[in-house]
Amino acid sequence: MRQSQVRTLLLSAAAGACLLLPALADEAGLFPKTRTDLSVKDMARVAAVTRPATDFSKPEAFEAMPGGATTSTALVNGDAFSHFSANISFAEEEQFKLGNALFTKLWVAAPSSTQASDGLGPLYNARACQSCHLKDGRGHPPEGANDRTSMFLRLARPARTPEEEARLARHEVLTFPDATYGEQLQDLAVPGLAAEGEMEIAYTEVPVRLADGTTVSLRKPTYSVAELAYGPLGSDTTLSPRIAPPMLGMGLIEAIPEADILAHADPDDRNGDGISGKAAITRDHRTGTLALGRFGFKAQTASVRDQVAAAFSGDMGLSTPDRPNPFGDCTTAEAACLALPTGVQARLGDSEAPDPVMDLVTFYSKNLAVPMRRSVEAPDVLAGKQVFYAIGCASCHVPKFVTRRDADNPAQAFQLIWPYSDFLLHDMGEGLADGQPVGVATGREWRTQPLWGIGLTETVNGHTFFLHDGRARNLTEAILWHGGEAQAARDAFAGLSAQDRAAIMTFLESL
Fold it and tell me: 449 vs 32, 45, 265, 468, CA distance in Å?
């Protein structure tokens, strides 16, 4: 791409960004439209430091530290995603290590001789958090000898009555489960109980020709379920695949002020740039209050603790104080599951994973550090960053935020962070559509995924499968699957020279 073209694209993108107003995001006034944690002076500092880059001749200040003071500067190797926030206290390091022990712990079926470890299932997808979030990183679809542990199918049906539609509108529920199989297909079960079924995937190769004559093959997946043990799925039940996302920087994401996320939302595309990100609205599971969704592929979860509780319940069938059902996702149609013993121990509390477990796993999840960037000063990295901005990627993959001064943990407070996400929902086109609405997210909408750490996926997890279902075998394929609001950026990428495409890849691999 010639410098004149880059300059024109950058000026156009900047002009569009100036039209964004916080008021566009939250018409109902559910969330603050301005930050309440900063002085006027600090507001000016934050506005200056988070302004989009315009000089690509050198790195921006602090760009090499994507997690601010929490950033891990440890040696880059297969454990790069498993280090604690660099600025937590010595006492908190102990909490982190205890949380790690629970995160990697293998749970067992009840009753067992290890009473503090039983309660698994009875139906489940994994025996440990680490089984899905491999080395705290990204899961994968089943490939060759790889198993299905880090991937599963979410199940949901549409509302069938006005009353159900009203519950969705009031954000009382996000989806309606399949009557027999619940909210997700569990392909594992405790001894003596049949698993629900098995996910099957069939791929079709779809060739895509780029402007310079290069042909890239995209694999289009089709999903189905075999060996259903408890009868058929509902006729209107949809299947939505999920791989486990990486765990990096979750406490920092939770500390981004609502107003700063909402400032990037434009649900009606009033500025006419073709991008209409919208906020996800959900409820805190403990308080029932409305909250801004920011975690999960559909931004269906508002806090790290809610995410942890949902995983304990849905993935492992473990009850917590937040989700006290010891049978997990078992339904009334699965009577054999409901007849089995649970792992609740009166002397340990009313749930299989009581508050001490929840607190430690939540702390661990909030403090998995983002690794330090590599080669931020390299000319090819800077060139790739410039093209990334120029073709519009930064419109949704927003580079920078500053976290709240009053964050729950001082380690995450007032940090300049570089997640490369706006944490909003976007229509990504028919190619990526799963047809499954979740809360306010339609069947074509997905949360913008953070990019920090993406360049170390192969180092940590030994693969380069991307997107919500791992269909993309590399970053080029992932970009070419973008559609909908991202169609213009995708087409601009497809129109680049091989040199400029390589530069973007080099930039992404530095993240």
Answer: 24, 26, 15, 9
Average of per-residue pLDDT values in the chain:
93
242 and 260 together in one domain: no
Q: Both 239 and 162 in a single domain?
A: yes
Give the CA dihedral 343, 349, 351, 352, nearest 10 degrees: -40
Q: 60 CB contacts (<8 Å, ≥6 apart)?
A: 53
Q: Of 366, 395, 416, at which residue does a domain stop?
A: 366
Q: Rounded to an integer, what distance in angstroms lies between the CA atom of residue 131 and that of residue 106?
A: 9
Q: What is the largest CA-CA distance in the chain?
A: 71
Is residue 391 located within the same domain as residue 338?
no
Decide if 154 contacts 240 (C-beta within 8 A). yes
The answer as to whether 299 is a domain residue is no
How do beta strands 188-189 and 445-447 pair? Answer: unpaired
In this structure, the answer to whether residues 206 and 107 fall within a common structural domain is yes
How much is the average pLDDT of 465-484? Answer: 98
- Checking 56-60 for CB contacts under 8 A at 24+ apart, the result is 56/382, 56/383, 56/385, 56/386, 56/389, 57/382, 58/377, 58/382, 59/376, 59/377, 59/382
Q: What is the CATH number of the domain that holds 489?
A: 1.10.760
Please check the confidence at residue 19 and state whether its pLDDT lies above 80: no
Q: Phi, psi at residue 153, to the nearest 5°? A: -110, 125
How far from each other are the two terminal CA atoms of the chain, in whole angstroms? 22
Q: Cα(421)–Cα(419) distance, rounded to whole angstroms?
A: 6
- Altogether, the residues listed in the chain come to a count of 511
The whole domain housing 197 covers 90-249+304-366
**pLDDT at residue 93 in the model:** 98
Query: Do 267 and 240 fall into the same domain?
Result: no
Summarize pLDDT for 196-222 with one digit per residue, the tens.
Answer: 999 999 999 999 999 999 999 999 999
Residues 42 and 144 in one domain: no
Q: Are residues 245 and 260 in the same domain?
A: no
* Continuous segment of H or E residues that includes residue 239: strand 238-243
In a domain, residue 286? The reply is no
238 shares a domain with 162? yes
Tell me what pLDDT residue 154 has: 98
Q: Regarding beta strands 151-156 and 238-243, do their DSSP bridges make them parallel or antiparallel, or are they unpaired?
A: antiparallel
Q: What is the pLDDT of residue 143?
A: 81
